[in-house]
Design a protein that fits this description.
The complex is a heterodimer. Chain A is mainly α. Chain A has one domain. Helices cover 69% and strands 4% of the residues of chain A. In chain A, a hairpin with a 2-residue loop joins β1 and β2. Chain A starts with 11 loop residues before the first helix and ends with a helix. Chain B is mainly α. Chain B is built from two helices and no strands. Chain B is 90% helix and 0% strand. In chain B, α1 packs across α2. Classes of the chains: A mainly alpha, B mainly alpha. At the A-B interface, β3, α2, α3, α4 and α6 of A face α1 of B.
Chain lengths: 297, 156
């Protein structure tokens, strides 16, 4: 809204575009510049990065504080709530995985809570934080929902992917993973009785299939979250457009504004489901992928 | 949708928070919950043991109560027989006492009556003699008529 220079009321497309633009910083030959970074890989989306970090610190702070002050015999309400989340993650992990891992369960907990917090930013009215930051700190752009930034979702899913590869190679060995898992599936030439001459053909076919399936894991993981949250955010922005006419004075404008309010309410209620569901799905798929990586087929 | 260094920053942040959670959140929470589970299990076991002990005590109580009841009944029976025997004894004793007292009283009465009879007899003898003296107007030789007088006295 308060894009630098123009103080007039923005058009609808300007409004939408403004809300979908990150606050970026990057280093160019002329020093650090803001928001002129298209095409520069070393740009940082300051808004989503900061919100992501703040929410992560919030998660870590709350959980470590509660855990430090936890009482074994007299759990408080907050502690009980955290224990419920803990139990959800713990049962998900132990139901899905055979054996134990010191890393996977805490990581799953981090994912579900952090992603939930990041998604939850979606329920804050779209103009509230950008307006506050624009008016007080003169921040021209502000995207408050970190999970609407593909960098954030890919950051998570690529980390998970790295762990998938790590566990696959560690548990199955290089040949066990590359040959046994990627080349001998889903068509096993040995079981099918294919003559040795054609094995490379079958194996190549398998490899292409399995490799794509493997790459699809981090891609689908992050795009699912990103797509859901981006679409949700976009809906909120579009609904917010209706509010603009509330103060226009005309009956039609007021009616449109009120409709916007109703729509916002309905969409927000629906979004509570989406927010928690997407966090849960991300966690659950992470656990499933990692348990697959740890186990031979 | 342009990917940039935020991606790398997010990966580092993720690693950091996951490490933090793995180090400072998960283990103590797990430990605490497991301890509490053990505590609850122990508590339930103790409660189970307690209720079993209570059951045993209840059974023991019933046995002891039965025993006590039997003993009490025995004691009451004994007391009853003892009481009735005491009453019987007292009754026989009282009966014999009564007989004794009655006998001695009778003996005394008889004795008294005999004594009175003797006295009366003597007095009657004297009265008879004085009467006879008056009739005869003379001295009766007591010695001469002692036989006669004694016979008379015995007849009265």
């Amino acid at each position: 809204m308060a894009s630098e220079g123009s103080h007039g009321a923005p058009t609808s497309s300007e409004f939408i575009e403004h809300h979908l633009t990150n606050l970026q910083v990057c280093k160019t030959d002329a020093g650090w510049v803001w928001n002129e970074c298209s095409g520069n890989f070393w740009a940082i989306n300051v808004d989503t990065m900061v919100f992501s970090l703040v929410l992560g610190v919030f998660f870590a702070g709350i959980f470590s504080y509660i855990v430090k002050n936890a009482s074994k015999s007299k759990p408080g309400k907050m502690q009980a709530f955290i224990e419920i989340i803990f139990d959800l993650v713990n049962t998900s992990v132990s139901d899905t995985m055979h054996g134990t891992s010191r890393l996977i369960a805490p990581m799953a907990l981090t994912i579900v809570v952090w992603v939930f917090f990041m998604n939850l930013m979606d329920l804050i009215p779209v103009d509230l934080l950008p307006r506050i930051f624009a008016d007080i700190f003169h921040v021209p752009y502000l995207k408050v929902v970190p999970s609407t930034d593909p960098n954030i979702t890919f950051g998570l899913s690529l980390s998970v992917f790295a762990l998938i590869l790590y566990y696959s190679f560690r548990e199955k060995g290089v040949s066990g993973f590359v040959v046994g898992e990627l080349m001998m599936n889903p068509l096993n030439p040995k079981d099918l009785g294919v003559p040795k001459v054609f094995w490379p053909l079958v194996c190549t076919f398998n490899f292409i299939l399995e490799f794509v399936a493997m790459l699809a894991k981090p891609l689908s993981l992050s795009l699912r979250l990103f797509g859901n949250m981006y679409a949700g955010e976009l809906m909120f922005i579009l609904i917010a457009l209706l509010f603009g006419s509330l103060l226009s004075g005309t009956i039609a404008g007021v009616a449109m504004g009120l409709t916007g309010g109703l729509l916002h309410f309905v969409w927000a209620v629906f979004h509570i489901l989406v927010v928690s569901l997407q966090a849960y799905i991300f966690m659950m798929l992470t656990i499933v992928y990692l348990s697959q990586a740890k186990e031979a087929h | 949708m342009d990917l940039n260094a935020t991606l790398i920053g997010q990966m580092f942040a993720f690693g950091l928070f996951a490490w933090f959670c793995m180090k400072f959140v998960w283990p103590p929470l797990l430990e605490m919950i497991e301890e509490r589970q053990a505590q609850i299990a122990d508590g339930l076991a103790a409660a189970d043991k307690g209720s079993r002990a209570l059951e045993e005590a209840e059974a023991e109580k019933a046995v002891i109560l039965d025993e006590a009841r039997g003993q009490a009944r025995e004691i009451i029976d004994q007391a009853n027989t003892r009481g009735s025997s005491i009453v019987d004894e007292a009754r026989t004793e009282a009966g014999s006492e009564k007989d004794r007292i009655l006998a001695s009283a009778q003996a005394e009465v008889e004795q008294e009556a005999n004594r009175a009879r003797e006295e009366l007899r003597g007095q009657v003898g004297a009265i008879a003699i004085s009467g006879a003296e008056k009739i005869l107007q003379r001295e009766i030789d007591t010695n001469a008529h002692k036989d006669l007088l004694d016979k008379l006295a015995a007849e009265i």
